[in-house]
Amino acid sequence: GAGGRGEEESSRGRGRAGKRSALYEQLSRYEEHFSRLLDLERGEEDRRALEAWGHWPLERLEAQGLLLRGLRVDVRGRHLQGILVRFYLPAGRQFPSTTLEPGDMVAVTVEQDQGAQAGPGGNEASGVVLERGSRFVDVQFRALPDVLPPARPDEAFRIEKKYSEVSYQRMEEALGRFTDAKDPDIDVALRTALACSWRPPDAAASPLPAQVTEALRLTAFSKGDVRAALRQVEGAAPGPPLNPTQVGALSSALQRKVGLIQGPPGTGKTQTACRLIACASKLHRQSSGKVLAVAFSNVAADNLVAGLAALGVTVLRYGPVASVRQSLRDWTADAVLEKDGGLQAALQAVDSAAEALGDESGRFRDRLEAKTRLKQALEKLREEEVRALRRALRGVDVLVTTCVSAGANTLQEAVGKAPDLQFGCMVVDEATQALEPACLVGLTLGAQQLVLIGDQRQLPPTVLSIEAARQGLALSLFDRLLQPPVALQAGLLTVQYRMHPVLAAFPSAQFYSGRLKSDESTASRRPPPSTFPWPGEVGQAFVNHQGAEEVARERGDDGMASDDGDTLGTASYSIANPTEAELVVRIVHSFFDSDTAAHAPPDIGIVTPYTAQAQVITTMLRAKGLDKAVEVSSVDGYQGREKDIVVISTVRSNSHGKVGFLADPRRLNVAITRARSGLVVVGDTTTLAAGCPTWAALIRWLSKSKLVVPASQVRPGEAE
């Protein structure tokens, strides 16, 4: 009897220890795998940057928008947590095309020699772009850079776009902490559910261990509690209530430890996300937990802030203020900290030390002393910033930031050393565009529940390294959790409010098994009057042509181009199709030469996958004076957005049926679901159908309704 029980207990103990060591092993495999993939990706990004800076002449860097030259300087003074400096071109000059956007990291150097090779110089200062006009760029620096004062009146400066290592460092750090079984801030069940459900890409199919399945299936709240919270939120919400599928998806996601919501184009994903975050905040408030809401991009993070503010939720937007929409700056941490007394005193100390340093009439020794004083004042400012952020966080229900900004030192310190600051739930919007390690960053702040919102039939994460993509870096966490062996169910939003039903029919059939239904309000959408020859009753057409593509090679080498150019402007060549560009501009022009266009200009977007084509089209639009009225962007640039009329320039036309990355069906889905009332696809049906089954399906679908028309039917506009 007794001996038998002892043996039983010790074997149970051994079983537990065995399970534990298997768990540790799995955690370290997961960490090693993703660390290796991040190294591959970082290596590829470095290689491309070095290729550009090492081999390209300045003119080409300038043409690619990676460099601005010949700038004058104007130090504007202190701006929130830094120094604002304006760089501008002398009168009469305008920037060539530049890819600089608010929030970008840049390096600023003095131009010693006009012909000098680009690249990281010895004396450069790193800053963040705050704003860009047609002949100025405002850059925010953490402290006054040595490069700047005092500038001679004739001194010229150069600004180079930098690739930031910060996001890689934060993802690496998060991976280390998430897989460290001793880290007290990581929720044990989430660690088990996410890291231990991962399988190497080449592993044979095998069921998950019971404890992993249990962790994945844990419930967080009862259905009754979630519905009660939603009733409270809806009671105070402006605008129409959620529809039944949105309520169902929200409710099932919040009942779970790990919940997923799939939002096809136009289904009110952001509205649902905001209501869900507001509900989560009510549910977690009992245990004094806050909600962390992160998005892959700054645009999506801003949309969450706007939506939550409208619901009356107290929200703080964290991240570089430069990357936040102007109208939302009042919700930023910087704007809130501006009003913090303790921080103000620390800032004044920095100011007076900076002033003494800048006093050129002072003795050298005094200025040296001022420099030491400034260093100490800046250190004190850092500490005060952490304390002030902690005070600000205590006063809000929701913190909104981007996936990677959740790893910022100031934020990690503010939360990590304050036991009373807890995050009950983390919600990830645009989860299908984020790398899996990027989704882990926010979990280091201690969330106990995770909701991922995305759509695996739209754009995947951008991965430059072919090897890293092959080994699974391009598979988002959202998508991995949907696939076996995990096979979680995502709540699907099925009612779309964006497209005319005819425009929604093909994407619904092709990508959503016919489950995407159109709200009745969409049936009345009609494209505005124009001279464009729509072939059917509604605004849908494919304009077919055979104008050949051209490789817009930017390097004079004879190396064979690989199959594809690249949307990121870092490949050595891109592809353009001038014949098609002319046709696209002719089509766009036809929407501007009606009487109504004069007083109500149409809302038109041009989507094209290739940088070179975007440049050709923009130049042609400029010649017609339409470049300000029409936005030209890549498929990636339009994800999550919409226009009344969308014209797609597909570019590819060749005798081998090669379509490059157009072959990705997700790219096609995003491109054709941006339009509310009118969609015109321009391309070569033969090349597209030969190169990709999904394009072939779309062309068959449109042909059946007689919506494919030859280019000759689009007559030249009056203005030609």
From TrEMBL:
GO cellular component: chromosome
Record-linked Pfam families: AAA_11 (PF13086), AAA_12 (PF13087)
Protein name: AAA+ ATPase domain-containing protein
Bias (Basic and acidic residues): 1-12
Spans annotated as Disordered: 1-20
Coiled coil: 364-391
Lineage, uppermost ranks: Eukaryota, Sar, Stramenopiles, Ochrophyta, Dictyochophyceae
PANTHER family, A to Z: DNA2/NAM7 HELICASE FAMILY MEMBER (PTHR43788), HELICASE WITH ZINC FINGER 2 (PTHR43788:SF16)
Protein family according to the UniProt entry: Belongs to the DNA2/NAM7 helicase family.
Keywords, ordered alphabetically: ATP-binding, Coiled coil, Helicase, Hydrolase, Nucleotide-binding
